[in-house]
């Protein structure tokens, strides 16, 4: 084989060996931000109210924080009171609006209902006053909870049982948060008594 052909093959082998190394050492390409994810080009946003001020609130979204301004033309929609005064920190909000200069001005602010947080408490009845309160203790005897009973409390009895007695095993469904005066029983499920 001629010298030129050998030299060409050697150069080709070197180029093939070095090519992947130089590509690996090169800086990675800078990603281009996706315009749909940028808050600056959106006409709406969804998130949680971080803080509230006169005429504006800060909305925390997946893309970051957005200051939302309202005016006398902004429509508030929510269960119950439909005004800016009903807006509180922690509310989940969907906002539609437009950019006026560097300010996002809301056309519509929809405050979504908060999700109810329910918890099941299981235990043995240690104290019971019909239509007033019930106290239960967990199986280990470590935790004890007292619940208010209201006219809205539903009580589910097993067959052949029509009342709650001390020592009965029950499961009480209540909201996770306590209200003034303590926890409120929404439902009481009385388990069958052991014979």
Give the key terms.
195 residues, mainly beta, five-stranded mixed β-barrel, five-stranded mixed barrel, 1 helix, 11 strands
How would you describe what is shown here?
By secondary structure, the chain is mainly beta. Helix content is 12%, strand content 46%. It is built from one helix and eleven strands; from the N terminus they run αβββββββββββ. Strand 1 and strand 2 form a beta hairpin.
Oligomer: single chain
Instruction: Give the rounded overall mean pLDDT.
Output: 80
Percent in strands:
over 45%
Output the number of helix runs: 1
Broad shape: flat
Series of H and E elements: HEEEEEEEEEEE
Alpha carbon gap, first and last residue: 102 Å
The unreliable regions are 28-36
Rounded to an integer in angstroms, the radius of gyration calculated over CA atoms is 32 Å
- Order of strands in the sheet with most strands: 1-2-3-6-5
In short:
With about 200 residues, the protein is mainly β.
Topology at a glance:
Blueprint: H1 3-25, E1 44-53, E2 56-61, E3 64-69, E4 75-77, E5 92-100, E6 103-112, E7 118-129, E8 133-137, E9 144-156, E10 169-175, E11 183-190
Parallel strand pairs: 3-6, 4-6, 9-11
Antiparallel strand pairs: 1-2, 1-5, 2-3, 5-6, 7-8, 7-10, 8-9, 10-11
